[in-house]
Amino acid sequence: MRRRVGIRGKIAAALLVCMIPVFVLAVVLYTRHIADRRSTVVRTQEDLARALARDVATFFANTVHTERLAGAAVTGQPYPLGGIAQLFAAIRTTDPAFQRLLLAAPDGVVETGAPAPQVSRVSGPVFDQLNRGASWAVGTPYLADGRPVVEVATLVMERGVPTAVIDGIVDLGMLPAAVPTAATPAADALVIDDAGSIVVDLRAGVRAAAPLRAVPAVAAALHGRSADIEAFENPWTHRRDIGAAVPISSLGWAAVVLVPDSTAYEPVRREALLEAGWLCAYVAVGLGLAWVLGGELSAPIQQLAAAARRVGRGEAGYRVPVRRTDELGELAVAFNDMSEQVERSVSETSAVQAVSDAALSTVRLDELLPPLVRRIVAALGGDGGAVWFVDENTGELVAPQAFGSHPGAARRLRPGEGLAGRTAQEYRAVQVTDPDALRAIDADLAAQGVQAALSVPLRVGGRTIGVVEVIARTPRDFGARGIRLLETFADRVALAVDNARAYERQQEIGRIIQQALMPAPSVRLPSVAVAGRYQPSREVGGDFYAVLPLEDGCVGLAIADVAGKGIPAATLAARTRYLLEALALDGRDPADVLTRLNAALVSDAGTNLFVSVYYAVFAPARGVLRSASAGHLPPILLRTGALAPSPLDTAGVLLGILPGARYQSRETAVRPGDVLVLYTDGITEARRADGELFGDQRLAAAVAAARDGTPEEIADAVMDAVAEWAGAGQRDDRALAVIRFLPVVSTAISEQREEARVT
Amino acid sequence: MELDVTVRTDGNVTVVDVSGEVDLYTAPRLEEALAKASGRTPPLIVVNLGRTTYLDSTALRVLTAVFKRVRERQGGMAIAEVQPKIAKLFTLTGLDQVMPLCPTEREAVDKVHQRPATA
Predict the structure, then answer these.
(1) Domain spans of chain A?
(2) So what's the ipTM on this one?
(3) Is residue A607 left, alpha or beta, with left meaning phi > 0 and alpha meaning psi from -120 to 50?
(4) How far lies A745's CA from each of A553, A555, A752, in Å?
(5) Domains defined for chain B, CATH in brackets
(6) pLDDT the model gives residue A740
């Protein structure tokens, strides 16, 4: 499942959403702030322009004042003309802005001045203005010797009657020095006269000739109105300027301040950038916080998810580390608890399941119990366990199989005696949770260091067949849950145990029967030495071999194979054996024996078991072996001097099928030293892992290889070869009889009668 | 230890094809296949051993038991296409004297119709 948007993403998104109004507000404030800053910049220019205007006005005011004073000084009293000139010269020295200072009559006739007057009359627009009634007038600036000058004339009045005209030429180049405000370093401060020509460029200090009149703000200022210059393409600096134009109303001029746009707004921009930077930092910190917070949440959650997956995959009991005390820590603790529960549940279930599995198979008791008991002890958290069985005859509990640290028991328990006895008698679970109580019930267990125990009966069909005990070496309460678990376990085990015991009883019976059938592994008679080997398969079966001493020193040799397994086969084998013996002891011919045997067996209605028998009588006096077979594999005879054994082919129908079947005897000469090998198909049909059969050839080879040994050695060699061939699995009974014919000693014949048939 | 048992009919004769090995572990399947056939009235069975590679005593026991039952119910049973190795086993145990062994299935079917209760 792909995570679409994780916790981190969601927190980040939430944070961003919350920040939107802040963001919007910030943007609004930012723009307003910028606007404010911009207008501040503009106002600064206005202020500068105003200051400049004021300074210029002051300059001219001072000039006019100086002229008036000079006029007043020279007209108030008789003053020698030469003296006036000296006075004017002194004024010029004091105020170097005055290039010329003239005294004239009201009609304009020049009387004197400093420097010496060059003209005889004062005339022109300035004088005309005085004539029209102005008390002072300023002319249009012009260049003289490279310096900007302007005519300033003042009318001297005495009691309202003009008495003189003071006419001066003032050097405007001195203006910047007189005007203290050199403005800001970046600003251009200009004074524009009414003709729109630049009078004074405070920066350059030189008169320049470009008209600024086109600028609306300048035009407005020349008409007496302050105005802002918003964008001016400065032809001299080739930059965009902003500024302000302020009227110098007394002169009809304008003071203009220009500042490069970028410079003026430089601080504004810097501030704007800084503020934007702060905003971004704010957002980044916010997102960073979201990331960290999200991580704080999502990492432990992912860890828990991974842990849950592991438990789901079967790692029951997987724990997560608990490192927090908040809700996630709580979740981790709860998870661990749950995992522990799951683990316990799984182990309990598997313990009980193991019993069910075992109950389905017919496995031996000593293989069945140990793993089961260990598992249930572990699931209950105990230190050991034991399984007692009830002896059906006496009702006593037989000393148990003990597991783990259960001490076991040295003796049997009577019903009611000890913990197990009490449980068996009361037919229900008994729990002892502390050492004192245990001592009272079962001193033996307590003496061995057991401090708590839980014991339940194994019940089958209403009777107790045993007891399961789980012990602990520390005081313990197994709880209602533990008792229930052990009872469930016990019920299932009881069934399995009962089955296993029944099976073992059956096997035991079969083994008993089988043992009765077999002669001793070695039989020594005067005329033959016989070694027999029998290896039953898992279930009891129906192969047997027999060595029967008969009259006149003859020996009966038989091998038989009952098809099938279990008790029916074993009992049929027994019947066949005893019938055969009875018929043989009568001294009958093998064919006759088999015929009668068949007749006896075939009349058994409903039996689906058939027997193959090979029966031979060895007559040592004649050195002859007379034999007949009812469907059995032909024995092999290894003659002394022969390279390999050869089969004694015989044929005859299996016993028990064909009513009235008849059999044939054949005679074979045998000499001392010859070896006869009788076997059943478990030998030749033993399969190797790859499926190949052991076969006649290998049997013959094994016999030939061991031919010089005793019959026991030959028999063992064959059995070993087969065991090695087949490996672990054995499916069929393996029976083998190796007979060596001995040299005849006639006196021993009577001794043979004394030889009991050994069982 | 592979065994494949297929059952078909040729008229009212049940033909059981045995392919592979019949031993202790696989014999029950043969037994099962024959059990149904031998329950009919009358039971007419041909066991075709043409592709049988191995028979042991368990297999013989199964065949013999079925034969006995068939005989009791007045039916007929025959073995067809027995391979030489298997034939030897029948001879050794004398079962060739009990149940008819025929080289071809056709002959076996005919034989069965003749209801050979005893060989």
Answers:
(1) 38-275, 347-508, 518-754
(2) 0.83
(3) beta
(4) 10, 14, 11
(5) 3-113 (3.30.750.24)
(6) 95
| Nearest CA among A126, A116, A61, A118 for reference residue A92 | A116
Nearest CA in chain A to B97: A653
pLDDT of residue A522 exceeding 80: yes
- Of A651, A731, A732, nearest to B94 by CB-CB distance is A651
Q: Round to whole Å and give the CA distance between A394 and A239.
A: 126
Residue with token string 């905003």 = A279
CA atoms lying within 13 Å on the CB side of residue B101: 18
CATH of A347-508, one of 3.30.1360.170, 3.30.450.40, 3.30.470.20, 3.10.580.10: 3.30.450.40
Q: Which residue of B has its CA nearest to A561?
A: B57
Please report residues of B whose CB lies closer than 8 A to that of A563: 57-58, 60-61
Q: How far apart are the CA of A557 and the nearest CA of chain B, in angstroms?
A: 19
Largest CA distance in chain B: 35
Q: Which of A72, A232, A101 is nearest to A164 (CA)?
A: A72
**Contact assignment for B24 to A661 by CB distance below 8 Å:** no
pLDDT (average), residues A676-683: 93
A-chain CB neighbours of B95 within 8 Å are 631, 653-654, 657
Report the candidate in A229, A215, A257 with the shortest Cα–Cα distance to residue A53.
Answer: A257
Q: Show the DSSP H helices in A532-627 as ranges.
A: 566-585, 590-602
Residues in chain B: 119
Cβ contact A610–B61 (<8 Å): yes
**Alpha-carbon distance A199 to A189, whole Å?**
11
Q: Could you check whether A347-508 and A518-754 share the same CATH topology?
A: no
Cβ distance B94 to A653 less than 8 Å, yes or no, reads yes
Q: According to the model, what pLDDT value does residue A757 have? A: 47
Per the document, the length of chain A is: 759
Q: Which residues contact A493 (CB under 8 A, 6 or more apart)?
A: A355, A358, A359, A369, A372, A387, A458, A468
DSSP bridge pairs for B46: B15, B78
pLDDT at A372 over 50: yes
What is the rounded CA–CA span in Å between residue A420 and residue A426? Answer: 10
Q: Which residues of B69-79 are buried (b: 16+ CB within 10 A; e: fewer)?
A: bbbeeebbbbb
Q: How many helices (H) and strands (E) does chain B have?
A: 4, 5
The yes/no answer on whether domain A518-754 falls in CATH 3.40.50.1370 is no
| A687, β-bridge pairs | A693
Mean pLDDT for A615-620 is 94
Residues of B in contact with A654 (CB under 8 A): 60, 64, 93-95
Q: Is A612 on the interface with B (CB under 8 A)?
A: yes
pLDDT at A759 over 50: no
Mean pLDDT of A501-508: 78
Using the Cβ of A661 and the Cβ atoms of chain B, whether some distance falls under 8 Å is answered with: yes
A286 burial type by CB count under 10 A (0-12 exposed, 13-18 middle, 19+ buried): middle
pLDDT value for B47: 94
To test the contact with chain B by mutation, choose from A627, A650, A653 the residue with the greatest count of B C-beta atoms within 10 A, namely A653
Task: State residue A630's pLDDT score.
Answer: 92
Return the closest-CA partner of residue A647 out of A590, A700, A692: A700
Of A529, A514, A576, A530, nearest to A742 by C-alpha is A529
Task: Give the CATH superfamily of A38-275.
Answer: PAS domain (3.30.450.20)
d(CA A19, CA A285): 12
